[in-house]
Fold Dihydrofolate reductase.
Amino acid sequence: MGKVVMYATVSVDGFIADEKDDPGELFDWLVGGDVPLDDSGVLKVSQVSYAYTRTYWDQIGVTIAGRRVFDLTDGWDGKPPAGVENVVVVTHRPPPEGWDPEAPFHFVEGIEAAVAKAQELAGGRIVEVAAGDVGGQVLAAGLVDEVRMDVAPVVFGSGKRFFGSVHAQQLLEDPDAVIQGNRVLHLRFPVRR
């Protein structure tokens, strides 16, 4: 079974987007460097961020996201982001009309079913859970092994919370990675069991 990692870029005050789902300057670190992070030619980061992020991305087998993220990104045009092989979408609704059934997206109901399907597809690789409401639910259910966050020097004041609307306390271990990049602080916390 692959490790389950909750991940996102987050503002200093704990938000992954503003009230209108706009991430604003959160992703400046992904375009403000000189080292290409992928083949798109768009994402360029500092060497430090490249070493940390590329290593992590290369270990991800599956990403779990909620239907809201899927809809906001237009399903990434049927191509999973960051070179991930499969995306599991947590939803109560069917795929959009006209959706290519061959696209590597799997629509499931409920977080337990999503994690089980992702583990099956990941083949021992990392299962990444997008932060926000779905990520917070997976964390509260005790299914997350590690929390990773890229903290950007942005303050929103309000918006979409990193841990979603979950109100249960969850303890994390001391960070086992604290890496400073340009316009970002990469943090990795094992979840206390």
Summary: The mean pLDDT is 96. The first helix runs from residue 47 to 57. The two ends are 17 Å apart (CA to CA).
